[in-house]
Amino acid sequence: MRLPHPLYGLYERRLAASLDPEQVPRHVGVILDGNRRWARGSGLSSATGHRRGADKISDLLEWSEDVGVEVVTLWMLSTDNLARDPAELEGLLRVIEDVVGELAAERRWRIQAVGALDMLPDRTAAALKAAQDATADVVGLHVNVAVGYGGRREIADAVRSFLRMHAEAGSSLDELAEAFDVEHIAQHLYTKGQPDPDLVIRTSGEQRLGGFLLWQSAHSEFYFCEAYWPDFRRVDFLRAVRAYSQRERRLGR
Prior knowledge:
Layout: H1 5-18, E1 27-31, H2 35-41, H3 46-67, E2 71-78, H4 86-105, E3 110-114, H5 122-134, E4 142-149, H6 151-168, H7 173-179, H8 182-186, E5 199-202, E6 221-224, H9 234-246
Parallel strand pairs: 1-2, 1-5, 2-4, 3-4, 5-6
Helix pairs in contact: 1-9, 2-3, 3-4, 4-5
């Protein structure tokens, strides 16, 4: 339930002040879900919903910076989404290209494209690579834009990368089988070298990951928010971070 405006502002400030800097997640993954349903409920086009969702991204990155998050991964387009109606997909890809370019132009965040770029149109892949190259020297919040991303595809790509590397080194199949362990997968993921997500947020009320960061989220905390992505507010983000900070993280122990 939304609080009246004066109380909302006070509640938000108190919520932000209550967060323990030592309990803030280093890496937050966000499944940006609900753009189309938000648009449909407002009598607007899907394209308008996607654009409104895109406009919310810079807010999220600012909120993340404010509380001390170091890495944010945004799931903007799955491999399954590539099978959508071509007209809608074309519009969505245009929005993604625009927003990634806008984020890069800020020179505030380091952008990294994660996903199967070979499955995307050349124009979209080029826009993602350009944003990544343009911000490679930026020191600050690291932002993974997951476009053409699927968790199963990522794991398969990691295995293929590992096998190719060792085949080029002349390793035999028996040697590979003997030496292979889980760390070899981690070293070839799209997010290699980054901390695994501590917190994964999904908007729109859906309570499933849908293949998001399958390998990396083994010990993540999950937070499911009822709000559609265009309606996601700072207070929703702060509640997610607070919920994370209050959980006892055993990490399998």
